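Entry 14. Structure prediction run on the chain below.
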Amino acid sequence: MNITAQQIAERLGGEVIGDPQVKVSAPARIEQGRPGTICFFVNPKYEHYIYTTKASILLVNKSFEPRQEIPATLIKVDNAYESVALLLDFFNSLKKSRPRSNRFFVCRPFSSKIGRGTYVGRGTVIGKKVKIGKNCHIYSQVYIGDGVTIGDNALIYPGVRIYHDCIIGHDVIIHANAVIGSDGFGFAPREDGSYRKIPQTGNVIIEDDVEIGAGTTVDRATMGSTIVRRGVKIDNLCQIAHNVEVGDNSVMAALSGIAGSTKVGKGCVVAGQSGIAGHLTIADKTTLAAQSGIIGNVRKEGEALMGYPAISYMDYMRAYALFKASAKK
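Output returned:
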């Protein structure tokens, strides 16, 4: 579908500089811009592409002043980086289609409720006493266990498994092959050296506006709930163990893990391949650099940590300078 610069500007609250009727059909990276695409410019190191790109439209900050003529039409906005998210969401909504499908299986159709406007793909299995809200899009081959509740506007991609009694909020996105509510890793040692499985009797609660990446697992609680709070964003291939609580608006990059019964505060950033040990408390707005390992409580709000065991980021960089210099001798 082609959309005009004027339509995009109205959507983003921007100002058109150039031809308001020029049309585009897709977004593109600025270095790969071609006719019929829209690109965005924020990082100064990409400025040279502004003057050579073949893109039809460029999204820029209102503060941007070109140093020479630009062939593309400009759309100026207050915050180009933030507007890009809205723009991509707009294009994504134009591409989405919801084919009708009645080839899914409900274990007890009269005990489960599916809201108006919800699409369920072929091969999906829905257990008994399930409640699914309005305007959800549940792709093919999803498993939704008994007693699960899913809020409005959920987007659940193929192969997702949601075990029994888990609760999913409104506006949640769960990507392919994620598993919600699998058993926590709980085993009691026996005298003979073997292990007895501890039943995991709790559930998982995913609050509103959460996104969970492909292949990520969130284990159910031994007792009570594993909780992912409102606005949390979790990347692909992460592990959230039993009875963990992840605070509002925290983000977690790929290949990271949080061990059981740890409470992560609000607004935390966990970079890729980081690990947090169990039964800890992590203060609000903590930042963990990539491959960091946390083995103790973090009590100071807003601290940046790095290394294993993780220490203050600046202390780590000073130590790194010393052992790097020592290695050259």
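The longest helix spans residues 80-95.
Filed with the rest of this week's runs.
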